[in-house]
Amino acid sequence: MRLSRAKIFESPIGCLTGISKRCYNGADRPERCCMAIDPQLLEILACPLCKTEVTLTADSTGLLCRSCRRRYPIVDDIPVMLVEEATVVPEEPR
Fold this sequence. Notes:
- The chain is an alpha+beta fold.
- It folds into two domains: 1-35, no CATH class; 36-94, Single Sheet (N-terminal domain of TfIIb).
- Helices cover 12% and strands 22% of the residues.
- It contains two helices and seven strands; from the N terminus they run H-E-E-H-E-E-E-E-E.
- The strands form two sheets. Strands 3, 4, 5, 6 and 7 form a five-stranded antiparallel beta sheet that branches. The protein has a two-stranded antiparallel sheet with strand order 1-2.
- The N and C termini lie far apart (56 Å).
């Protein structure tokens, strides 16, 4: 059984890479797609250093660990979960 390119990148709730017609956030055009990471993948990803949950940054260009404040970049829609590639984000003043 051969899958078409559209089937590979499409999920029941939206696109994974901005290729299909709709995005997770409901955008109708791929260029408006702001979330390139599948929510199910986000559920299982963890910081490789402290093993806690990571969340998508506000600009959708990285994943942030709230425990150790490391930001892991997202390159070509792929999260780079290497401690060596992460940057430490300073805590925001309260």
